[in-house]
């Protein structure tokens, strides 16, 4: 006797009956790059189909997202001016803060998540305040907390620190609580590797470090036990949701975090993953829809509850079409 595995693959109906992994538009978060200025809708050359938008172009984008049922966005800002201290990042009328207000006016039910970091705002492109030895951890977390507070005051639903300083979640939780934002959630980029898959993003957000790299603060992908340790610290300090980033090459890490902790896990399918698939698809070498769905299901199967992806609109459309 041998097991007939094919019995449950016989028809589309049976395959649908036994499947146990699902994706819904409700799980998707769409990243938006907001640039200070007017009349800007610039396609990012290494991310075909993705744009930097000025706020006057934002309403049309929100209409599209609403139509497709994508209910969550993650905001990145590109300011006009950068300086060593990233002042624009905590300017109460900065690009992200104004973006949050506009989204909340236009689409009050949209879940607005803000990326809390300094690399798009500092002239040197590092994720914090630097001296000759590198990014100074304890000084930087004071700035990171200030940025999170200004996003909260603008009306953000969730703040998402991506700087990778130690102690930042506690610093953010403290400043939010002191200012009456006790119930504002923190989605922490807890498990964030120093990755070459962020290359296209750095063009998109104009945030490449002017010198050096981020290996002193982002994680080393050859040190595997660090993932649980990072997530544990953030959860103990008050993180409500944990991000694993990148996603596709780190499915094992997503599974480990899902099995170890009792918080929602978000997989961030990053710019390099998007760029590779787009490049293959535009050359006619791969089938874009089927590849995107397959790898997004893989992230779900690995245990991700939330998927942050530049393909969010496409996935939502394909789910609708296939119904
Ligand atoms: C900011 C930040 C980065 C990404 C998200 N937030 C870049 C980096 O850390 O260098 C990357 C996202 C992507 O590649 O899609 N620190």
TrEMBL record:
Which is one GO molecular function term here? porphobilinogen synthase activity
Which key words tag this protein in UniProt?
Heme biosynthesis, Lyase, Porphyrin biosynthesis
Q: In which pathway does it act?
A: Porphyrin-containing compound metabolism; protoporphyrin-IX biosynthesis; coproporphyrinogen-III from 5-aminolevulinate: step 1/4
Query: What EC number(s) does the entry state?
Result: 4.2.1.24
Origin superkingdom: Bacteria
Please give the catalytic activity noted in the UniProt record: 2 5-aminolevulinate = porphobilinogen + 2 H2O + H(+)
Q: Which SMART domains match?
A: ALAD
Classification via Pfam families? ALAD
What start-end ranges are recorded for coiled-coil regions in this protein? Answer: none
Q: Which InterPro entries match?
A: ALAD (IPR001731), ALAD_AS (IPR030656), Aldolase_TIM (IPR013785)
Family, per entry: Belongs to the ALAD family.
Summary of subunit composition and partner proteins? Homooctamer.
Name of protein: Delta-aminolevulinic acid dehydratase
The organism encoding this protein is: Psychrilyobacter piezotolerans
């Amino acid at each position: 006797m041998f097991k007939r595995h094919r019995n449950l693959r016989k028809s589309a109906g049976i395959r649908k009956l036994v499947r146990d992994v699902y994706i819904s538009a409700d799980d998707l978060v769409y990243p938006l790059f907001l640039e200070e200025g007017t009349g800007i809708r610039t396609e990012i050359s290494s991310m075909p189909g993705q744009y930097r938008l000025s706020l006057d172009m934002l309403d049309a984008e929100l209409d599209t997202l609403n139509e497709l049922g994508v209910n969550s966005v993650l905001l990145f800002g590109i300011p006009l001016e950068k300086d060593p201290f990233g002042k624009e990042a905590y300017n109460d009328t900065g690009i992200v803060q104004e973006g949050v207000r506009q989204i909340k006016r236009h689409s009050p039910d949209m879940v607005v998540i803000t990326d809390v970091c300094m690399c798009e705002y500092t002239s040197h492109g590092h994720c914090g305040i630097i001296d000759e030895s590198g990014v100074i951890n304890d000084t930087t977390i004071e700035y990171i907390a200030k940025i999170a507070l200004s996003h909260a005051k603008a009306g953000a639903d969730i703040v998402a620190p991506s700087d990778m300083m130690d102690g930042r979640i506690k610093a953010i939780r403290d400043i939010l609580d002191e200012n009456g934002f006790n119930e504002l959630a923190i989605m922490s980029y807890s498990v964030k590797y120093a990755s070459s898959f962020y290359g296209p993003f750095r063009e998109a957000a104009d945030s490449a470090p002017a010198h050096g790299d981020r290996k002193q603060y982002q994680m080393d992908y050859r040190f595997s036990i660090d993932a649980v340790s990072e997530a544990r610290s953030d959860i103990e300090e008050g993180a409500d949701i944990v991000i694993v980033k990148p996603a596709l090459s780190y499915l094992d890490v997503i599974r480990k975090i899902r099995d170890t902790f009792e918080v929602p896990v978000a997989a961030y399918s990053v710019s390099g993953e998007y760029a590779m698939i787009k490049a293959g698809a535009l050359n006619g070498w791969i089938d874009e829809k089927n590849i995107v769905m397959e790898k997004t299901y893989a992230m779900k199967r690995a245990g991700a509850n939330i998927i942050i992806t530049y393909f969010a609109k496409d996935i939502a459309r394909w789910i609708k079409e296939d119904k």
